[in-house]
Design brief:
Layout (H helix, E strand, L loop, with lengths): L7 H14 L6 H13 L4 H7 L7 H6 L11 H4 L8
Length: 87
């Protein structure tokens, strides 16, 4: 989204200020600026909600998810099957 919204400069400023804010003697004002960047860039829950962003389901998980069959077996016994040479 940052690339689509042309926010590369804001992301770079956030990274620089975050590095400065993580130092032991960082000012409270700098930490507030970093918090504002977190929200505006959608890196916090509040920021994601404000931007109306939702996380998409990972493609690998969607592909690996079992698909429901059209006709489910009638009973538990019908769902059982034997496995030859199984452990």
């Amino acid at each position: 989204m940052w690339d689509q919204l042309d926010q590369r400069y804001e992301v770079a400023l956030f990274a620089r200020n975050l590095a400065r804010a993580e130092k032991p003697q960082a000012s409270v004002e700098l930490q507030k600026v970093v918090r504002q960047y977190l929200d505006s860039l959608g890196l916090s829950v509040a920021g994601m909600l404000r931007n109306r962003w939702r996380l998409a389901e990972p493609a690998a998980a969607a592909a690996a998810a079992p698909k429901a069959s059209a006709a489910a077996p009638a009973s538990a016994r019908a769902r059982l099957r034997s496995i030859s040479g199984g452990a």
